[in-house]
């Protein structure tokens, strides 16, 4: 039970691709935060987070995503949450975050 | 009279996943369906996360999770002996303008059938949450 | 000083699987490998099974499992407040002529690095077992 | 986490085929015991237990198998434990039961 992340910059789309595998919770959210901050320091542009293999996210993890989104919004950029599992979609719907992030798949 | 099970864990982030697994095992044994098991797991984890982040307990102070089970429901109490807070002051999050924090209690209330927060400044906080088996009430 | 975690469960067969999952989660978090996690899980489950079958506790009397963890080892104590027994009298099973019973403690001793049995007639039984991280000792 | 069993009598081999799926422990061992007793009451003959999908067995479960074996031995019959997973093989070895049952695969 932990979190693995892969990140990649796609120049032709000017977009970060981030794959998150495992669980984002109070224990792992800080690593996600650091990873995203590093990416945005390098290039403040859209992030596509592939959640196909994300099993769990808690309010701490959602808070990290909201923090990153706020920073991106200043440059009119966004976060795309791709292929969330049903449990994660449910959380995004309950919290209204499905209207704030772009949800794909 | 139902069964009761309790766990005492250190106030450290790395133990929340242990509680999640235990909670899932209990809920699954009781016959909750997959979605309900997930709801209960998420709610308990959010309450533990609050105890760890906000109660201001020392990391080697443990806090408690108590599960009460009968044929109809599970009642879970997450209890810390920390700072406490004014729970009346907790506001619902403004879903149109999200903030980094303030989602935990809202998520718990959304996922469980009944939620009662009790907090005494200087003494600690107990959040009690109930989920019923079978049809939603 | 390490962390400690404890669980109190009803003396009922259906809760042993909950303890197995919790134990696996703890051992896995500590960095034990897959085979060691399985060993610890089996040993704890055997001790719980004994507490449930032999301690003669009432089903709604709970018993305790205590986990002590540091960087080097996990120490687990399964403790009931039941009948107790004369632990000196426990014989090693005769592996050439197997019986239906008498394997539990033998299995625990085979899988864990250190095992101490303490039992007081009329007061209860504690089995304490230790497994070290890293190379076998 | 529970135990599922399928049983079948193969007349040409005069053998019971039993498939056990899941976990045999203090909670489920009684059902295994009843199942085996019913089979042996019908026909006291070799039992082949397919353990391919057996994740766990404890001393209670091993006790049930030993009990059934004792009954079969009186008629010179046996129990074949087929395809046990490594954790279960380990337990059979530790307890010496690998020398009492026939282990296959
Ligand atoms: N166990 C607790 N001990 C002390 N304060 C708490 C506790 N749980 C919640 N709180 C308070 O309630 C507020 C709202 O909690 P919550 O909705 O979970 O959001 P967040 O944890 O993101 O702030 C917290 O910011 C904190 O002030
Ligand atoms: N917690 C306990 N309380 C009382 N007696 C116990 C306890 N644990 C073990 N014993 C005694 O020790 C004996 C041996 O236990 P064990 O090796 O696990 O085999 P089994 O449980 O199959 O008898 C038991 O039969 C019982 O008499």
UniProtKB/TrEMBL annotation, chains A, D:
It comes from Geosporobacter subterraneus DSM 17957. CDD domains: STAS_anti-anti-sigma_factors (cd07043). PANTHER family: ANTI-SIGMA FACTOR ANTAGONIST TM_1081-RELATED, ANTI-SIGMA FACTOR ANTAGONIST TM_1081-RELATED-RELATED. Transmembrane segments: none annotated. Coiled coil: none annotated. Belongs to the anti-sigma-factor antagonist family. GO terms for molecular function: anti-sigma factor antagonist activity. This is Anti-sigma factor antagonist. Pfam families: STAS (PF01740). PROSITE patterns: STAS. Residues 5-105 form the STAS domain.
From TrEMBL, chains B, C:
Pfam families: HATPase_c_2. One of its GO terms (molecular function) is protein serine/threonine kinase activity. The keyword Zinc-finger does not apply. Residues 9-131 form the Histidine kinase/HSP90-like ATPase domain. Keywords: Kinase, Serine/threonine-protein kinase, Transferase. It comes from the Bacteria. This is Serine/threonine-protein kinase RsbW. It comes from Geosporobacter subterraneus DSM 17957.
